[in-house]
Specification:
Layout lengths: L5 H18 L10 H6 L15 H26 L5 H13 L2 H16 L3 H25 L5 H22 L3 H9 L9 H12 L3
Helix pairs in contact: 1-3, 3-5, 3-6, 4-9, 5-7, 6-7, 7-9
Length: about 210
């Protein structure tokens, strides 16, 4: 890690992550290179190696930030809303993920590559955020559905989190994919992030 104030270090890290995020809006994970990311920052490309060793580490940091933003959103809801029905909770959780399409996109496409290509200390930081997201959803269940058993809450979490990996590819379909499914005679119902998540949560809650 380069010498300098913690503020400068964090600012440089954020600039690199932001550059990666902007490129990801128009390019795929495989297409983006460290050179591309470096060229999109205000400092020399080689300086990136002072903060991240691989592009996988940069994407993992971006995914970590997305998880943290989602956690913050859920915690704000718990602070502001005292009670919810099952329908209201399903709608809230669906809206929270609808606002984090990038979280779902990265999860679905690049998760294994990011973890495999990151150093242990970066992976640990990410797992802290991931673990916090699981605990936060559990705290939401504790707050809004105190009658749920420990087993029911565990079933919810260990069904919902794997489900999240499939949301993006089921809701963002290219024209080529759409045409191929139509020509193959696949009877597919196109749904939004909100619709897919809402229906899943309602079923998990027993409605």
């Amino acid at each position: 890690m380069p010498k300098g104030s913690p503020e400068l270090t964090e600012a440089r890290r954020e600039e690199i992550i932001n550059a990666c995020e902007k490129l990801y809006q128009t390019k795929s994970f495989k297409e983006i290179t460290l050179k591309d990311i470096g060229n999109a920052t205000s400092f020399t490309r080689t300086s990136i190696y002072n903060y991240f060793a691989t592009k996988e580490e940069i994407f993992l940091a971006l995914l970590q930030r997305e998880y943290e933003l989602w956690i913050d959103s859920l915690k704000r809801t718990m602070e502001q809303v005292e009670t919810m029905t099952k329908d209201e909770f399903a709608s809230m959780l669906a809206h929270s993920l609808e606002e984090r399409a990038q979280l779902l996109k990265i999860m679905s496409m690049n998760h294994y590559d990011m973890e495999a290509g990151s150093r242990p200390e970066h992976l640990k930081d990410f797992k802290v955020a991931y673990g916090s997201s699981i605990r936060t959803v559990g705290e939401c269940l504790d707050k809004y559905f105190p009658d749920m058993t420990v087993h029911e809450k565990q079933d919810f979490i260990y069904t919902f989190f794997p489900f999240m990996f499939g949301i993006y590819p089921y809701t963002y379909v290219t024209e080529k994919q759409r045409t191929a499914m139509e020509e193959a005679g696949v009877n597919y119902a196109f749904m939004s992030i909100y619709e897919l998540t809402y229906n899943c949560v309602k079923r998990l809650l027993g409605e």
